[in-house]
Amino acid sequence: MSDASATKSISFEPSLFKPEAIAAETLAANEAFRKAMSGGPDWWDIGAPAYRAAAASGRGPFPPPAQSARARTIQVDGKGGHKVALRVVAPEKAKGVYMHIHGGGLVFGSSAGQDPMLERIVESTGMACASVEYRLAPENPYPAAWDDCESVAAWLVKNAKSEFSTDVMTIGGESAGATLTAATLLRMRDRHGYTSFRAANLAYGNFDTSMTPSQSLAPDKGILVGKISIKKFGEAYLPAGINPRDPDVSPLYAKLNKMPPAIFTIGTIDPLLDDTLFLHARWIAAGNEAELAIYPGAPHAFNIFPMPQAPAANARIDAFLKRAIS
Q: What does R_g of the chain's alpha carbons equal in angstroms?
């Protein structure tokens, strides 16, 4: 190895993390986002079912997403006789399959709520998109969601060729979906011997349920998520007695060899900032390829809402996925 290649490294640009790096447009959008999320009850006070019902009826801070006319649902056999629904949006001739896992703290969200994102990825990459309707906590705590995602991944690996005429596989998700994406990659490697995913999209996941410093030092109530809500989500999905640093729950502590190329996306004011920075570093240290996209002033989940940096972040993710299947 030459001296040049030995010393080559990926460095962080300090200016990205300074307050002056945050554009006025981003500051204004963050304040509007904060106001939109304030005033209503916290989900742990009224219960997850009531909060979900309010959101589904349009009584939450954001309207329900539009539905795709070409979306369909496949039922996949899960563990213990459980059926897992798979929401599919596909082009006439798919160039690959993107297994998507939605966010929501493992307590909220649905595959049916992902249609606009799936449509965007279909149009940008030419892949068929399949979003997992995994079971939610607290009604279904760990390992229910993990098992559902593993079942779907194993089914897709076996059936993608016959279902979509391609066996080129990619995977990804946002927030809790990124957490489950990493766990699914590890389970597919360790339990199924499958390491052929072409790419992983890991957007602002919680990769350490025991809480990284940025989680522990976050404001009690941030924009969309804060320290209190992160703790409440963890309490909802992780049963007592489970080690919060178990690699199946917290992939930051897993052996990360034989992982696919990954794109890590994070905003600098996201309480999960350290999770992304740390896992990105460990991903590379394990000999994998990884790309890090940092957005000054962007809050948690910024690219799934109409925020200023969302178009650029989503275009970069889509381009990464498209390159991976080329």
A: 19
